[in-house]
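User: I want to check something. If I give you two sequences, will you return the structure for each one separately, not as a complex?

Assistant: Yes, each is folded on its own. Here is the first sequence with its structure:
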Amino acid sequence: MEKLLGKIHSFDSFGASDGPGIRFLVFMQGCPLKCKYCHNRDTWEVNTGNEYTVDQVIEKALRCKTYMDASSNGGITVSGGEPLLQAKFVTELFKKCHEKGMTTCLDTAGSLPINKQIKELLKETDTVLLDIKHIDENKCLKLTGSSNKNEINFAKYCSENCIDMWIRQVLVPGYTDNEQDLIETRKFIDTLKSVKKIEVLPYHDLGKSKWIKLGLKYPLEGVKTPTKEEIEKAKKILCNNN
């Protein structure tokens, strides 16, 4: 029987902000979105990356298990790119993680239609880190190249099936910081039953060098990091009482 292989961009052995506790991070290769602020531009292509078996990834993760165990609910987080593109591989990886006593987090934009394999993956997911790109469909299309319908449906499915979620909003001045948009985002979040945390992630251009290295023009040239006041305003709208 042919072994299941995952196309992986990279690993990070010590993640402290991508789910509860200390986490081993796996960045999958491939993404259907074209986010203007993407800091992992080199993960977009689906036919690149290095191939690993589930057991090879588990072997890497287990080297960090002492640190995971020393923290609260530490474990493995699979990000990207968009891990839903390789849902079968991530499902098998998460099953093996649970066998080894590691919690599982899925860092996703929910950017694919929910199918049988994604439902199987979510059964093995302890926490979903859901990046809501934009609550306004037209603005989302301009920002990411795609509608927000899939991510909205993904959030609703997680809520209906009591799958814990951390909702994340990247705060990009001039793109995602409109007050009414933030209010509408919070209204949507309030309809969800399984949200455990809401995070405002300030935009930065630390990924700009990756665009340049690929010979590409950085789409948000000149956009500044949000000010402390802008961040606090967004947090007040999105995070109060959560």
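And separately, the second sequence with its own structure:
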Amino acid sequence: MQTRAWPLFDEIVRSAPQRALNPWEGGAYRPDFDTLCLLLAVPLYLNANTQSRVPALALDVWVAYELRRAGLDPDAVWPREEAPRVIDTEIMRMVRALKPDLRNQILDKLKKGTGVGGVAVANANMLGKNYFKQVDVVMTSWKTGPELLISTKRMDSSFGKNMQNRVEESYGDAKNLSLRHPLASIGFFYALRSTAYEEAKPQYLWLVDMLTKLGREEDAYDACCLVMPHWSGASPPDDSGETDDEPTEEIEDVEAEEPVENLEATLASMPTVSLRHELVPEELSASRFFKVMINGVLDRSPISQHKRARHLRSPDDPAFI
């Protein structure tokens, strides 16, 4: 299922009209919600259940896309926009410097998502204080270590099932990561289908309250975000309500991915997904989330690092022109 989803995800972000636009406006961060809605429609179009992890991947792809829009190093932000999805920036620089024949041979091996000697893998597992944790969106390199760590969760149905357990687990995960990486920006991004507001309002209110509190802990998350997608119809079949951390399906070879022959026609046939912004408090908004996360990265790193991101945030500052 992922081999069908990745080409769609990639084409959507590559063709996004706001891709090259500065997301900063008057000191506020303006997320590209149109692209998020298209990405959220992909799992519905493919009828992908949560065990395929495609619904959660839609969130990971969008969060990583926004970090690249903000000017952070495209190779350092995982998942990358092309295979291999998780690989150190220095390795990619070395490979690109090779002669074409050798470069292509190595890239062909690296693009296999199961990894080559543990170098190129499908998922980012980061060591915290006490245990390894799969982190969904990461910015890191050998030189800097982890600078940004974001975990994503998604719940489309069965709102009373496992919601509390997952949020409680996320609290422990935040402590585990922040104690080993105290200077990294650490965030939690949660997508809850808007029907929860009508069908399970007590659970919706509890989640809003908990996410707000999690984002205020000094040694846990720097920020938490809630988005509430809305669409007509049921969730994909066999949906358990929430995506597991560990995928049950590895990304296959790039050659096995099914190309998108007509993106325009495919997008036209996808279900329409919108966002219920009015159900999300400002403290959990995506605009605030990205502002806090990106400012955290820039404020905790030398001025010589992330020059493009600094310029986009402060285009009139002569130091970054």
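Because they were folded independently, the notes below concern the second chain alone. The chain has a mean pLDDT of 85. The two ends are 44 Å apart (CA to CA).
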